[in-house]
Amino acid sequence: MTDRDTLAMVIGAGPAGLMAAEELARAGHRVVIAEAKPTAARKFLMAGKSGLNLTRDEDPAAFLAAYRGERIAGIVSEFGPAEVMAFARGLGVELFTGSTGRVFPVGMKASPMLRAWLRRLAELGVELRTSWRWIGYSGESLVFETPNGRSEGRPDVTVLALGGASWPRLGSNAAWVPWLRAKGVEITPFQPANMGFRMSWSSHMAEHFGAPVKGAALLTPEAASRGEFVISGSGIEGGGVYAIAADVRDGSPLTLDLAPDLRVDEIARRLSRTSPRDSLGNRLRKALRLDAAKVALLNELGRPLPTDSLALARRLKALSVPHGGPRPLAEAISSAGGITAAAVTEDLELTALPGTFVAGEMLDWEAPTGGYLLTGCLATGRHAGRAAARRLG
Q: Per CATH, the architecture of 8-192+334-392 is what?
């Protein structure tokens, strides 16, 4: 990459990198995107396979409260749900909002949006170089492995949007950490985020593996989640777990409420009206409409079960969940940790490497799934891209 007319280099063609490239191009600068994989935005496409959750249409204060990390809420407040929806519609993507406020493309998939976005970037003059893998520095120059061999160059500004450390097979492998540390960039070690938790199930739970648990509540001292989760062979996972995963990972105790819409006294009253000749499972089904998965969880986590209706009601409302810790980072949907707030300016420019900006999951912030992650990546990409354009002036 000896072409010195390359003023702006974006490394990483995920949502954060593409957004940064668009901002630079709209400011009139020549932009090259270097992407290690043969195609762009692989994690974005994978996330969209089950329905692309772009953002969440909810009260701004509640939306921003979902984020952890210095500065991230301020950056997202400048490019939040309304702006993300407008951006998608500008690409010709029709949207709808689900009952929980989650916003999806009408077609549910990520690929039509990505194709439209790449087409628009090409029209703005952005060049996408695929199979260009950044492998570190040679002095002050960026070094790449490319289909045509080794390439080096020193663009006037660089935006790094290389992702965190989750789903490494899709490109986010944190290989960049030692290269930036060697340049004096402070980086917090990565941890899994939006992940499941290990459980040592008894053999009786095997028939419920894969079963969804609906209408329950997962509780920590800091938060409550009413989202659906799944019993798996390795533990518990799914959106309901991810919503409180950060608290649990960081040491908060986890409890399960199998009947969150009923008070203890009402549960006890209903149980007391059932026949003592019925099995416990039948009593729970008749009195509370608990399905087989919930009854199994009660038996697994609550034994020895009390016979008194009031004591049993209290057990149903507060089952301790003795998990074995989070699932591995490579399995997590996203990661916590990364480049610290102290290592960047308000413009997301590395203080140790002037002219180099960072965006997306490289930065030390986290948020639950449900539209928050993608909005955060888009917002930080926009922020870094605009700042890089201002530096070029």
A: 3-Layer(bba) Sandwich (3.50)
